[in-house]
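Researcher: Can you fold this with pyridoxal-5'-phosphate in place?
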Amino acid sequence: MVELNTTVAFYNHEFTTLDKVQISPLDRGYYFGDGVYEVTKVHNGRCFAASYHLDRLYRSMRLMEIPATIAPDELTELHDTLVQESGIREGSVYLQVTRGTAPRTHAYPDRMTPNILMYVTEANAAKEELAQTGAKVITLEDIRWQHCDIKSLNLIPNILGAQKAKKKRAAEAFFFRGDELIEGTSSNVFMVRDGILWTRAADDLMLKGITRQLILTRVAPTCGVTCIERKIDRDLLLKADEVFYTSTTAGIVPVTQIDKETVANGEIGHVTRSLQEAYAHLMEDGLP
Ligand SMILES: *Cc1c(COP(=O)(O)O)cnc(C)c1O
């Protein structure tokens, strides 16, 4: 049996601890992965960019036709309360909304009440270290559906991809649709060529990461780095001067090897370093 820790948690209307949360086997999240989620960074005991994550959560819910039974203000307050109560200074808030509980049928009944789960976890030191050391990644064919812009609980291809990476001692797998780079299993991808930052334009085939968005709108401009959003094919990626991937929990992770190919000279590039520094400053300053 997996031991659950006693970290403070919120389930539906109550504060409790994670080990005491009781979830029905008839929850559609359990049967079908019928739900959505968010992971928000906690830094210096404060939530970072929570409003961005909540905007995306409500969008995911709208696209899944899960009714909003809780207001954004209330969720913001719950984030802050949980972080405070947990005593965790560095970590993340996990927030999950499933469609609700009902007897198992594919189509769902009218007027279901969503189940809301939230808790705070400590940062994973090994994962955070990759930002300093750089990481090896593998590439895989993207076998996902046409709505990867929804942060849905249905993560089977992502899980299988991450596991394949782990087996090859790689930190992440990059998904390709044919020749086109899409994103990582739980991250977005950037490359640098001739001092210019490139990333794929966001559409419904990829998740529009908050970290990605902040790099485009705040971090790169601070560093005076020009960024273009356009298609990246395999050839272009393998010729890059620098490559990195981004996510809330991993931050900005330099990529030093893709499958068997070394990226440039295998060193972490200076554009990546300066973006990491500016991003760290942004996190220190905080963002609602
Ligand atoms: C969450 C996620 C990301 C990264 O998004 P952030 O908001 O930066 O954490 C990228 N790709 C996928 C598939 C994800 O689930």
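Model: Folded with pyridoxal-5'-phosphate in place. The chain has a mean pLDDT of 97.
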